[in-house]
Specification:
The protein is of the alpha+beta class and 331 residues long. It is built from 9 helices and 11 strands.
C-alpha cells in the first residue's frame, strides 16, 4: 500500500503540473464517467495531501478525493516539472553524514522514487516526454496524448501533462464540507498539522488506548500516513514490542515515535524512498537507496538475522497485515 510519503509526493506533482491549468477529464475504464464529465473543462485550483488521501480542488468549490488504498497509483506522462525539493534528493537527503558529498540521483529498480508513476509498485511505467525539467528521467514518447494502458479510472489531461489514476480505493467528488468532514476523521499528519499540536493529539490518543501499539500506528484516525513499512521500522527504531498496549507505552516513548515519524516522513517525501536506516557510509547509502532490502531494519526480512542482535526476524499477522519485528531488540 502506498504510504504517506507517496501521497505527499503526488500532491507536489499536481501542484507543479496540474494546479492552475484547465483539464480534460475522462474515465477510460468507465467507472468514474459521471464524475469525469463534471470535472471536464474545469481548472484545478489547489491540492492537499493528508495522510494517505489527496484532495484536488477545481472551480466552484468542487473537490476530487482520491484514496489509493492497496493497489492504486498515479501515472504521469508528458512534460513534468520536477519539484526542486524532490529534484535535490540526490542520495543524501536526511543523512547528516552525507551532506557535502556529490552523489548523483539514485533510482531504485522497483521505481519507488519514480517521477512517472507514484503509488503501488508496477511492472511497466508510462514514459515521460523530455523537457528541460526532466532531462535524464525517461525516453521521449512519440504519441500525445499517450495511449490508455490498462484500467484507468480517471485521466486528467492538460496541454502538456497527463495524469492517469489506476486502482484506487476511493475516487469521488466532494463539497468543501465533505472534505472537512473527511479530514476531521484523520489523525495528525506531520506535514499538515502543527508538529507540537500533532504530537499532543497523538500522545493523548495512544496513552488512553488498550489497543496494541502495532495496531494504533496503522489506525489512520490515530496518526495519518503510516503503513506496513513505516510501522515495522518505527517500532524497531523505538525498541518497542508491537503487542504493547498503547496505554502502557511510556509517555516519552510515544513522543519519540511521533518525532521519529516527523523525520522519516520528511526523508520519504524528499527522496521518494522509505529510508529508515541511519549513519550509513556513502557506499552503503547508495546501495540502500538503490535496493529496498538494504534500506530497512526489519521490514521484509523474515527469518533473516537482526542487523543489531542477530536474532531471526519474526513475521506474523496482526489484523490481517504482515508485521515484521525482532523479539530480542523489541522487548
Amino acid at each position: 500500500m502506498p504510504e504517506g510519503h507517496s501521497v505527499h509526493r503526488i500532491a507536489r506533482q499536481f501542484e507543479r503540473n496540474i494546479v492552475g491549468r484547465r483539464v480534460s477529464a475522462s474515465s477510460p475504464q468507465g467507472r468514474f464517467a459521471e464524475g469525469a464529465s463534471i470535472l471536464d473543462g474545469r481548472s484545478a485550483t489547489q491540492v492537499r495531501a493528508v495522510g494517505k488521501q489527496m484532495f484536488l480542488e477545481f472551480d466552484d468549490d468542487l473537490w476530487l478525493r482520491v484514496h489509493l488504498g492497496m493497489y492504486g497509483a498515479w501515472d504521469f506522462a508528458g512534460e513534468i516539472q520536477v519539484d526542486p525539493t524532490i529534484a535535490s534528493a540526490n542520495g543524501r537527503i536526511g543523512q547528516t553524514n552525507q551532506r557535502g558529498t556529490d552523489l548523483p540521483p539514485i533510482f531504485d529498480g522497483a521505481g519507488e522514487n519514480s517521477l512517472s508513476s507514484i503509488g503501488a509498485p508496477r511492472r511497466a511505467r508510462v514514459n515521460v516526454r523530455m523537457s528541460e525539467q526532466t532531462r535524464g528521467l525517461g525516453d521521449a514518447a512519440d504519441e500525445w496524448p499517450p495511449p490508455v494502458v490498462g484500467q484507468v479510472r480517471l485521466r486528467l489531461l492538460t496541454e502538456m501533462t497527463c495524469a492517469d489514476l489506476r486502482g484506487p480505493t476511493a475516487c469521488q467528488l466532494q463539497s468543501p464540507d465533505e472534505v472537512a468532514a473527511t479530514v476531521a476523521k484523520l489523525g495528525p499528519d506531520p506535514l499538515v498539522d502543527d508538529s507540537a499540536q500533532g504530537e499532543e493529539r497523538f500522545v493523548s490518543v495512544v496513552r488512553r488506548k488498550p489497543t496494541p501499539i502495532g495496531l494504533l500506528l496503522m489506525d489512520q484516525s490515530v496518526v495519518s500516513g503510516i503503513g506496513n513499512v513505516y510501522r515495522a521500522e518505527l517500532l524497531f527504531r523505538a525498541n518497542l514490542d508491537p503487542h504493547t498496549p498503547g496505554r502502557d507505552v511510556p509517555d516519552d516513548v510515544v513522543r519519540a515515535l511521533w518525532r521519529d515519524w516527523v523525520r522519516l516522513l520528511a526523508i520519504g517525501v524528499e527522496t521518494g524512498q522509505m529510508m529508515t536506516m541511519d549513519d550509513l557510509d556513502p557506499e552503503a547509502y547508495r546501495l540502500a537507496m538503490a535496493h529496498r532490502d538494504d534500506r530497512h531494519w526489519v521490514y521484509h526480512r523474515a527469518g533473516l538475522p537482526c542487523r543489531v542482535c542477530g536474532t531471526s526476524i519474526v513475521l506474523e499477522e496482526m489484523a490481517a497485515r504482515k508485521l515484521y519485528w525482532c523479539p530480542t531488540c523489541q522487548v
